[in-house]
Each structure stands twice: as structure tokens, then as C-alpha cells.
Amino acid sequence: MARRSLVLLAVSLTILQVASARSWLNQFTTDGTVRTAYDASGQKVMMLNLDRSSGPAGFNSKEQFLYGEFSIEMKLTRGNSAGTVSCFYLSSGDGDGHDEIDMEFMGNSSGQPVVLNTNVWANGDGKKEHQFDLWFDPSADYHTYTIIWNPENILFKVDDKFIRSFKRYSDLPYPTSKPMTLHATLWDGSYWATEKGKIPIDWNNAPFVVSYRSFYAEACVSGGSCHAGSDGWMHRQLNGAEWGTVRWAERSFMRYNYCQDGWRFPQGLPAECSRH
């Protein structure tokens, strides 16, 4: 985005910084069965619970954002979580022309890797998934998951490792104008999540519980003003070493890349696939 556009953006957005572990819960509304507690270190934890009768659970930001850096620590369900989907994502809504940035954790059969699905929707154009087998047990401890969204690219990060960069091209759809709400959800994705829906939820393992803590955002909030010169995230792009971690993740842990799925796109792969 041109600097003039960023100046205009500064008139309509404001920086939000949420660094306090004790206050972050106040930034959200909740749906379904959601409980709060304190962990051993005294940090507040939001726990989403899913069973056959309760239905999906989640929390949703009270504010809408246009660009920013968002991170949260998550500890996923222990044991057989096949069929469940745990999410940390941004969305402008459910309409046909919506924008969305996803980090979705697809439950597993005991002993199998948890799959992280990353995806970007722009003006209703999606199907841009990169999926990775996580290289650790995400149910054993908390890990940090981060989305950086700016006018130049969308970056996905797990702990200290960048695993994906989705670049903006001026002639292709990209989330630039629709403010998005931040969500965390836990729901029954049996029709899709585990081995393409082959393994549904076993409700005998319920309740399924996913814990969230230490939410952090430095972002532009719809309706105020924004310091567009905050280069920590507004112009953030990967350096050479960080591109190295992306290649490492792709080489060692990538399960699916939409740019390699000719069967799904018989009329030709999406245009950005030839520009990386």
C-alpha cells in the first residue's frame, strides 16, 4: 500500500495494545461452554469445552481490526481428539464476499500428528490452504500461534518459527478494506477435519477442552486513528533466515499445498502459485 494510503488509514484506525494477561479476557464475548481459571503461574486461562449436548464454544473480540499482529498461547485437547477443530482466526463475517485469515487445528486419533491448517480468504475467494503436521505435541503444553496481517503480506508463525507468508499482488484478491473480528472456537468438524472426514468425533472422549492464555494484539481498531508508522508489524516481511524456517516447515512437515493440487483446480492453479 502506498504511503499516502497509510496516512489516510491513520485517520480511521487506532492502535490497540493488549499485553496484560490479567485483562485480556475483557476484550471478548463468549459463546457456548466457556470457563475461566488460573494456571500454575497465575495467568488467566480461557477454556473452551465441547460435548454432544453443549455444541460449539468460542470467544469473539468486541472490536474489529484492520491490520495488526495477533498472538495467543493454546494447549489443545489431550488424547483422541479426532473430528474436533480448534481455531484462532480473523473474519469479516459470513457473507459471500467475506475476508478471513485462519489457523485451524484439526484433531487427531491418539498417536497421530495434529494438523495445522492455514488459509486466507479475500472477497470470498478462498481455497488457499497450507497444512502442516505439528512437530510437537500441542496438548502437552502451551505454544504460541501468531498472525501478522499488513498491507504487504500475511505471516503465520508457530512459537519462534515462521511457517508461511501469503504475499499481496495488486491484481489479485487480498484482505485490505473489510475490518475483521478475532475469534477462537472449538467445534465438531467430523465431516472434514480428520483424514478428510473419515474419522468422526468419539463422544465417549468428551468433554473436549482447549485452553487459551496470554492473548496479545498490536493492531488497528476500526473507528479510531492508527499510527501507520508502527513498523513492528505494519511493514513486516520475512528476512532471509525467516524464509529459511518457512522452507524447513514446507520440506519437513507440509501435508497439503493448494498450489500443488491440480485435481482441485482443473482450469489451472490460482495465479499467485506461479509468482512465488
UniProtKB/TrEMBL annotation:
Glycosylation sites: 108
Record function comment: Catalyzes xyloglucan endohydrolysis (XEH) and/or endotransglycosylation (XET). Cleaves and religates xyloglucan polymers, an essential constituent of the primary cell wall, and thereby participates in cell wall construction of growing tissues.
Family per record: Belongs to the glycosyl hydrolase 16 family.
Gene3D superfamilies with a match to the protein in the record: 2.60.120.200
Taxonomic path: Eukaryota, Viridiplantae, Streptophyta, Embryophyta, Tracheophyta
Biological source species: Dichanthelium oligosanthes
Enzyme Commission number(s) from the entry: 2.4.1.207
GO terms under biological process: cell wall biogenesis; cell wall organization; xyloglucan metabolic process
Designated name of the protein: Xyloglucan endotransglucosylase/hydrolase
GO MF term list: hydrolase activity, hydrolyzing O-glycosyl compounds; xyloglucan:xyloglucosyl transferase activity
